[in-house]
Design brief:
With 228 residues, the chain is of the alpha/beta class. It contains ten helices and eight strands. The protein has one domain: Rossmann fold (3-Layer(aba) Sandwich), CATH 3.40.50.150. The protein is 37% helix and 25% strand. The chain binds S-adenosylmethionine. S-adenosylmethionine binds next to loops.
Length: 228
């Protein structure tokens, strides 16, 4: 049986490579509202061909496929792609396909999609502009500054300071607009929150969760978008 350490201390690369099933469970606990709900209120995805960069295990691509005509997921990590492909098969979803690639190297011709989305994943603007047809939209959803790990940011510290610099670039260099919104994720039980959120965000988070007994986390997300 697979052995799990108590935590991977914010090593997202290790999470995606070695524990894609934990990311999948973590991302599956319900958010109120969900990212897709908020995105759909502001951006019309119905009937569109949507590129989902950093598609992971299909957590954004599969729900999107209910509304979009076609969803193309691009994901560099083979273990995550395997989860996505299995999940699409299990759910009989036929308008989604997943490809190896990255934000910086999208395996699509110029002008192939109506919308480029990166949901809690990086966006490389020049490459995204290449594959989107006009009129179209580029959209990136990330964690708002000082909300790493959601409301426990101040407990965890910020082990990934580069993230903020990348999103500043979207507004300052590339003229993106932004929208912030809050969402509460409910893990249901203390065991669930410890073996997913705690597993990812580390010992300080685990100690805090054990002390408080909380089973929800408030997140603040930031949508960056640019019409083209
Ligand atoms: C937090 S997950 C997001 C998965 C999914 N979009 C979701 O909403 O849950 C981030 C994903 O981005 C991928 N990723 C990391 N660097 C990337 C890059 N440069 N280009 C594209 N994807 C990348 C990771 O392998 C991981 O699967």
């Amino acid at each position: 049986m697979k052995q799990y350490p108590e935590t991977i201390e914010n090593r997202w690369d290790v999470l995606y490579r070695d524990y894609p099933e934990i990311y999948n469970t973590f991302a599956s606990f319900s958010y109120q509202p969900s990212i897709l709900q908020v995105v759909r209120e502001r951006f019309d995805v119905v009937g569109k061909t949507v590129l989902d960069i950093g598609a992971g295990g299909g957590q954004s691509a599969l729900p999107l496929s209910r509304y979009a005509a076609q969803v193309i997921g691009v994901e560099p990590e083979a273990a995550m792609r395997a989860v996505a492909e299995q999940s699409a098969r299990d759910n009989g979803v036929e308008n989604v396909s997943f490809f190896a690639g990255s934000a910086e190297a999208i395996p699509l011709p110029d002008g192939a999609v109506d919308m480029v989305m990166a949901i809690t994943a990086p966006l490389a603007v020049e490459e995204a502009l290449r594959v989107v047809r006009r009129p179209g939209v580029l959209l990136q959803v990330g964690i708002a500054p000082h909300w790493y790990g959601g409301e426990l940011d101040h407990i965890i510290g910020d082990p990934a300071p580069g993230l903020e610099a990348a999103t500043c670039d979207l507004t300052e260099r590339h003229g993106f607009s932004m929208i912030d919104f809050d969402s509460v994720q409910d893990y249901g039980t203390q065991n669930n929150i410890l073996r997913t959120y705690g597993f990812i965000f580390g010992r300080r988070a685990i100690a805090h969760l054990k002390r408080t007994g909380q089973t929800t986390i408030r997140w603040r997300f930031r949508i960056h978008y640019r019409w083209v």
